[in-house]
Amino acid sequence: MARPREFDTDEALERAMQVFWQHGYQDASLPDLLDGMGLTRGSLYKAFKDKKSLFLLVLDRYESAQVDAGVAMLTDPANGDGRTRVLALFGGLVAAVAAGDHRGCLLCTAASSAAADDVEIASAVHGGLAKLQQGIEAAIADIEGIAPGDRLRLANTLLTQYIGLRMLARSRLPMGILEQSVEGVADILDRAAR
Amino acid sequence: MARPREFDTDEALERAMQVFWQHGYQDASLPDLLDGMGLTRGSLYKAFKDKKSLFLLVLDRYESAQVDAGVAMLTDPANGDGRTRVLALFGGLVAAVAAGDHRGCLLCTAASSAAADDVEIASAVHGGLAKLQQGIEAAIADIEGIAPGDRLRLANTLLTQYIGLRMLARSRLPMGILEQSVEGVADILDRAAR
DNA sequence: ATAGTTCGGAACCGATTGTTACACAACTCA
DNA sequence: TGAGTTGTGTAACAATCGGTTCCGAACTAT
């Protein structure tokens, strides 16, 4: 009935996520996206409406890929006890930076930018972070010695730590913080568990 | 010999800081700055060279005003013991947000934006954060029961916590984290001191 | 008075922003 | 094969960006 699409929508979305992840919502220019996605203006607007709609799809993809993977790791008993799983989350973060990944967290970057003024974007960002929050809380619940009443507060502390570290990862600042952050988190966990 | 400046340079710089604080370096447009500072293009370029030079002056002002004030509070024994001083830092942060201040941290915002690619800006940002790091470490040194070898790591953990909280403050997300963050920090301190 | 400097303000620069319009190509279905 | 439909590619859009340059007016110091 009509001409078929010459590119794979899913793959284009994946590439768009990489561009937004590196540059943020506003600082990712349309030429940046077109280059990264490998298509032209006409195709992009035909397939994804406009820049904001594309970003909302990317946020959704990020949540169902990156965030859900982290939550799955935090909640799967096969990965060890709760303490091990939490430390694995932060260890993965440090390892990524050591490997040259300075993109930080797509959600955190969006949350602190002017993009957060948009209701739909803010809502999507909030959903992703809340999901991560619950993942951390679930892992904490699998650590012995931590009172149930302390779980939420501790989870919030760790989520804040996670956000701070990902911002530092993005900054490329030689503060020497990331290198010993896992030990710092381990201290928090071990001293909370008594 | 010449016509005197009709505006106060210091006051203009203060207003410029407010604009950059709220919008970040890139997202603060020239009209934004002109409106906020209450002067015209000709005057701004005559007095401050260009946008980047103005921002560097603002970063310097931020460090010698906001950061130094925080460090002074962290290091002055008149404000109580080290624990009290650290908690006051975070308490002030929470109070500011509760009062409607969602500007976050000028240094943190700059650090995570593309402005950090500029060497001079990155250097100034690093200097400010390092100063804060040392202030926190000094306060920790005044807490009994914390081994000297643990101070730096604990200071880094708290600085990360501080950065994360200020990013959350900027996001306006209703995560319910800021409200109980002081208790979370108190837990970290109390459990580290044994 | 005069030389020197800064003022506010407008005009303009080239570049970039996200978006739209349109002609053409490609495909399916009858 | 031809009609109908949709994607592709490119040009052009209006708006804004940061930055620069000009101007007559205002003012001070010599």
Automatic annotation (TrEMBL), chains A, B:
Molecular function GO terms recorded: DNA binding
Gene3D superfamilies: Homeodomain-like, Tetracycline Repressor, domain 2
Record flagged with keyword Transcription regulation: yes
DNA-binding residue intervals: 29-48
Keywords: DNA-binding, Transcription, Transcription regulation
Pfam families: TetR_N (PF00440)
HTH tetR-type domain segment(s): 6-66
Coiled-coil stretches noted in the UniProt entry, renumbered to this chain: none
SUPFAM superfamilies: Homeodomain-like, Tetracyclin repressor-like, C-terminal domain
Name this protein carries in UniProt: TetR/AcrR family transcriptional regulator
Species for this entry: Sulfitobacter aestuariivivens
